[in-house]
Amino acid sequence: MATAVEDRADGERQSPLSDAVVVRFAGDSGDGMQLTGGQFTLSSALAGNDFATFPDFPAEIRAPQGTLFGVSAFQINFGSSAIDTAGDAPDVLVAMNPAALKTNVPQLKQGGLIIADEGEFNDRNLAKAKYEANPLDDGSLAKWQLLKLNISQLTMDAVKPFGLGNKEALRCKNMWTLGLALWMFDRDRQPLIDWLNAKFAKAPDLAAANVAALNAGHAYGETAELAGPLKQHHVDPAPAAPGLYRTLTGAEGIALGLVAGAQLAKLPMFFGGYPITPASAILHHLSRLKEYDVTTFQAEDEIAAICSAIGASYGGSLGVTSSSGPGIALKGEAMGLAIMTELPLVIVNSQRGGPSTGLPTKTEQSDLYQAVYGRNGDAPMPVVAARSPGDAFECAIEAVRIAVQYMTPVMLLTDGYIANAAEPWAVPDLTTYEAFPVEFLTEVPEGGFKPYGRDEKLKRPWVKPGTPGLLHRIGGIEKELDTGHINYAPGNHQAMTDIRKDKIDGIKVPDQVVELGAEGGKLAVVGWGSTFGPIHQAVRRKRAEGEDVSHVHIRHIWPLPANLGALLKSYDRVIVPEMNTGQLKTVLRDQYLVDAKPVNKVSGQPFTIAEIEAAIEEALG
Amino acid sequence: MNEMTTIARTTTLKDWETDQEVRWCPGCGDYAILKAVQRTMPEIGTAPENTVFVSGIGCSSRFPYYMETYGFHTIHGRAPAFATGLKLANPDLDIWIVTGDGDGLSIGGNHTMHLIRRNLDCQIMLFNNEIYGLTKGQYSPTSRVGTTSPSTPYGSVDRPAQPAAFALGAGARFVARGFDVSKELPNVLKAAHAHKGAAFIEIFQNCIVYNKDVFEDFAAPKGAEDRQLWLKQGEPMLYAKGTRGIALDAEALHLKTVDVVDGDWEAAGVIVHDVTNRSVAHMLVEMRFGEFPMALGVLYDDPRPTFEADVVRQNKAAAEGKKADLQGLLKKGQTWTVTESGPEL
């Protein structure tokens, strides 16, 4: 058993652990790091910590073993105070092979702890990771603390009594590692043991082997008399309101919010989707919810997915479609038809890095222009953006509400980070949500039936085919005022274009609130979507230092809240951090003539808190 | 068309006409098809409010505006996708898709294929005029080799798609052919409507402006008997007033034409049309006009369970015994309760 602990040579080592700890599990795609991270997350929840996670996995399904591009990582930030991001730099890096070490160690906090599976640092794996010498031995990791363990061998030893084959035995490595992590952070093992027994209920040997590996990892921490880095560290629970909590990913938040929205509207839901990363998870979730009056349809392509959803809306269901940037681009023409025929529709865009195929598994916020402006003709459409998994639930309900109350397609923006990340979520009480039941037109109203007649909100009536007496035709050719007949007349097109614009402009959205800080002052940091976490933490820290800075986070991207212009003008300076090259910034400048300054990042990784702090410092001068 | 949904209704041709001015070119074959459909609907006996015409883009796709039913004029090539969502939202509706050779086989070929493969219960009328009319005369995917057009001034070089063969290849359970001015067209429409599942009808349609009389070689009234083979279930495949017929060359495994002497078609080996024979259907859709007469009528009709019925069945089965308790669903997964003394499972 080769175990060694090496301290940094110089005496400047920072204590890496404090109230909040960032741990990153990294290994080969086949090493089960996402599962390890998920279970460690549950353990954090049960320890009462607040947390945020960030799964970071390759685009390849099973990349060749041991390669740099095949590394899969899971980062969790947990702590005893409010946690809004998955953390900037990890305090602890668990590296299951050389490639995982190489791709992840640069982000590790100075003085942070590396736990490396020495057993995987053989010549073959070192070569695959393009290491010329073994980094565990050559001193190149001197600025961190290094703990070398032969996790592979230790796992094999632990599971020996169960007679598993070599390959199967090694697959328990992640549970050994999880056991060690549980010990490090003073966690209860029992919920994980229960989970393993339930997961492998049909294969008791595998269950027993995994439990043995978990226990062995835990025991290793407990019994190994180690100097240096491997110390047990207890993180106190974060204050949380009493109630029922669960972990929630953004994809779950969207799926559940859509179902809730459909129920509040008293409509059956039709979901037309086509597989695309990272949006597919929403289709997967909804396809299991048949008892909630949900019909899911995997269409032949993105275009058919949205067209089928529009067809279903025409038939009286809540049509929903979902995709990511490239798929949203394909749906553009159909969105125009939904705008022209004024049918309700929710389009979910789980944004990823672009353009073209871009970075399928990495996150970006670069589809804001596409959402607000990306259609032919004057084609206004409401846009709502979710900031977190829990917020995705609320935003999905809001998107449904706007769609049915104004008879319009609505785009709901989320991103790869929100879709995959998990956070603790206080399960809401559905009875506190106000229902907005749809009323279909079923009889000829007084004054005659006008398919394009309008109410005070400029909404046209929704008539289900099958309704006697209200037969009419709709389509994409310009509609005549009131009658909906084909009409190309110049005055009619002007009037209809104006109505479509006025209807969307007139959508009532809540006034913009200041998340942190005050109205007016030296600096506002204005964000949207998943940048909420790093902006919030950075503003909080700067305010604690006495700086005059506030955080404004916009949910309603289009139409913008009525008070937003005045609010932005109440600050001396405005900066807009975005994971794009400045899209919301452009909209704000255009709408309000404010000198909004961009802060941009398009590396496929979320902003770190430090990056936003630096931007605040620069803006304050 | 679904049995449970057949809302019997006595109507007349007038009940199916809208007040909209028809905007096709004078002499266009679409007029004849519109009249045939409007004439057929009362005979089918469904209710206008239960009927939806869904179209894409092109001359043919203006069709819904002229039918006093529900109608959705959608976007180019995508009518099958709209129809699929609509039918899944309300399986009781009687859906007719109106498309053309460009709309249904070029830009929308993918959707046509999948609609047929899934076997959504609907009627698909593909108006084949072998040209792009509404965009002013470019050659289409069914244009014959050498078609000169604004985009092919030296003649088209690519080989045309064969709509009926395409449909059968995609898995169609009903394939029929007719042409705009044919008196038989209503019968073909009725048969399509009677078929449960995706019923594909290729309707040859004369574009009087850009591809005039391109089907005259078989559609012209004079000599029609010699050039048209109207297929009838259970009847021998005879044409030319019973003097010629279609037989199988058993050695070469293809069809051949034979002379029938003194009406003794059996002696000549003429095949009796069996609409459920898929092998023969494959040969009929591939039968080249010229060497053979044009095969018209119901070429193939052998129903299978429909897509929407299977979806509804599966949805019901999956929901069986489960309560739609959303509050309960929110509580599923990795949960814990925070109490005064801390979190617990």
TrEMBL record, chain A:
<dbReference type="GO" id="GO:0006979">
    <property type="term" value="P:response to oxidative stress"/>
</dbReference>
<dbReference type="InterPro" id="IPR002880">
    <property type="entry name" value="Pyrv_Fd/Flavodoxin_OxRdtase_N"/>
</dbReference>
<protein>
    <submittedName>
        <fullName>2-oxoglutarate ferredoxin oxidoreductase subunit alpha</fullName>
        <ecNumber>1.2.7.11</ecNumber>
        <ecNumber>1.2.7.3</ecNumber>
    </submittedName>
</protein>
<dbReference type="InterPro" id="IPR033412">
    <property type="entry name" value="PFOR_II"/>
</dbReference>
<dbReference type="GO" id="GO:0047553">
    <property type="term" value="F:2-oxoglutarate synthase activity"/>
</dbReference>
<feature type="domain" description="Pyruvate/ketoisovalerate oxidoreductase catalytic">
    <location>
        <begin position="30"/>
        <end position="218"/>
    </location>
</feature>
<dbReference type="Pfam" id="PF17147">
    <property type="entry name" value="PFOR_II"/>
</dbReference>
<dbReference type="InterPro" id="IPR050722">
    <property type="entry name" value="Pyruvate:ferred/Flavod_OxRd"/>
</dbReference>
<dbReference type="InterPro" id="IPR019752">
    <property type="entry name" value="Pyrv/ketoisovalerate_OxRed_cat"/>
</dbReference>
<dbReference type="InterPro" id="IPR022367">
    <property type="entry name" value="2-oxoacid/accept_OxRdtase_asu"/>
</dbReference>
<feature type="domain" description="Pyruvate flavodoxin/ferredoxin oxidoreductase pyrimidine binding">
    <location>
        <begin position="268"/>
        <end position="431"/>
    </location>
</feature>
<dbReference type="Pfam" id="PF01558">
    <property type="entry name" value="POR"/>
</dbReference>
<dbReference type="InterPro" id="IPR029061">
    <property type="entry name" value="THDP-binding"/>
</dbReference>
<keyword id="KW-0560">Oxidoreductase</keyword>
<dbReference type="InterPro" id="IPR009014">
    <property type="entry name" value="Transketo_C/PFOR_II"/>
</dbReference>
<feature type="domain" description="Pyruvate:ferredoxin oxidoreductase core">
    <location>
        <begin position="523"/>
        <end position="609"/>
    </location>
</feature>
<dbReference type="Pfam" id="PF01855">
    <property type="entry name" value="POR_N"/>
</dbReference>
<dbReference type="InterPro" id="IPR002869">
    <property type="entry name" value="Pyrv_flavodox_OxRed_cen"/>
</dbReference>
UniProtKB/TrEMBL annotation, chain B:
<dbReference type="GO" id="GO:0030976">
    <property type="term" value="F:thiamine pyrophosphate binding"/>
</dbReference>
<protein>
    <submittedName>
        <fullName>2-oxoglutarate ferredoxin oxidoreductase subunit beta</fullName>
        <ecNumber>1.2.7.11</ecNumber>
        <ecNumber>1.2.7.3</ecNumber>
    </submittedName>
</protein>
<feature type="domain" description="Thiamine pyrophosphate enzyme TPP-binding">
    <location>
        <begin position="57"/>
        <end position="203"/>
    </location>
</feature>
<dbReference type="GO" id="GO:0047553">
    <property type="term" value="F:2-oxoglutarate synthase activity"/>
</dbReference>
<dbReference type="Pfam" id="PF02775">
    <property type="entry name" value="TPP_enzyme_C"/>
</dbReference>
<dbReference type="InterPro" id="IPR011766">
    <property type="entry name" value="TPP_enzyme_TPP-bd"/>
</dbReference>
<dbReference type="InterPro" id="IPR029061">
    <property type="entry name" value="THDP-binding"/>
</dbReference>
<dbReference type="GO" id="GO:0044281">
    <property type="term" value="P:small molecule metabolic process"/>
</dbReference>
<dbReference type="InterPro" id="IPR051457">
    <property type="entry name" value="2-oxoacid:Fd_oxidoreductase"/>
</dbReference>
<dbReference type="GO" id="GO:0045333">
    <property type="term" value="P:cellular respiration"/>
</dbReference>
<keyword id="KW-0560">Oxidoreductase</keyword>
